[in-house]
Amino acid sequence: MAKNTDSNVYTVVFAVIMVVVVGAILAFVASSLNGKIKENERLETQQNILYAMGENQDEEPYTGTGSVNFIPAEKAETEFKKYIKKQYVLQGDEMREDPEAFTIDIKKEEELAKKTDYQRRLPLFIGERDNQEFYIIPMRGKGLWDAIWGYLALNNDLEVQGVYFDHASETPGLGANIKERYFMDDFHGEKILDENNNLEGITVAKGNMDPLNERKDDFKVDAISGATITGDGVTAMINNTLDMYLPYLLKLSKK
């Protein structure tokens, strides 16, 4: 007896079978790749931390046209162990070493911190390069359209030695340029504290009147034209993060 392939029942049954089969295949593929995805995320995090502290393959001197060049992924693990001397987890009054601190999910910690009975875990990385010590802290904030994030590296005087920024979906050619080298390099040398060690932070300022960013004690960097809201998001992200970390940073630097 021939099947009635034009019937509604046949169509529904066929659709259900296809959904189940395709779903099973996708679930298998996702499960198979899960380990690889997590490993890639680990390496990317290590590359970003290293980039912020200046361990990268950027061309020097910077001419205004150079692109961002990370340590190759196949070398990230080795270089990370070489340059990152200690990893800490900060939680309340506690500061403990943890070799896996870089795997802490900042977004998840941010959500958990909304509960009144939870103390947020803050990762802190101590790096060393060219006989200089770096304090590298992760950041997360909100841009124009979605999340922005990055890393900020400070020296013992708590002056910025490097940054790395990234975003989920900022506008190409405008807010998306926070991850371009010409913007990130402007932060190098910026001070975050006033003469009394009070936090001033850094403002991404429109009309900064310092396009070459030669003043490093004005607590400002030049904004990206046409990306005011993204710039405001970077400002808030940096200063909110520094506010959380400052007590620990002052203790470490003995300022």
TrEMBL record:
Q: Biological process GO annotation list? A: sodium ion transport
* UniProt keyword Transmembrane present: yes
Q: Which UniProt keywords apply?
A: Cell inner membrane, Cell membrane, Flavoprotein, FMN, Ion transport, Membrane, NAD, Oxidoreductase, Phosphoprotein, Sodium, Sodium transport, Translocase, Transmembrane, Transmembrane helix, Transport, Ubiquinone
Signal sequence segment: none
Q: Primary place of residence?
A: membrane
- Where is it located? Cell membrane
| Required cofactor(s) | FMN
- Which residues, renumbered to this chain, carry the PTM FMN phosphoryl threonine? T228
TM region(s), chain numbering: 12-33
- Write down the EC number: 7.2.1.1
Subunit info here reads: Composed of six subunits; NqrA, NqrB, NqrC, NqrD, NqrE and NqrF.
Q: Which family does it belong to?
A: Belongs to the NqrC family.
Q: What does this protein do?
A: NQR complex catalyzes the reduction of ubiquinone-1 to ubiquinol by two successive reactions, coupled with the transport of Na(+) ions from the cytoplasm to the periplasm. NqrA to NqrE are probably involved in the second step, the conversion of ubisemiquinone to ubiquinol.
Q: What is this protein called?
A: Na(+)-translocating NADH-quinone reductase subunit C
Q: Which organism is it from?
A: Candidatus Ornithobacterium hominis
Q: What is the lineage of its organism?
A: Bacteria, Pseudomonadati, Bacteroidota, Flavobacteriia, Flavobacteriales
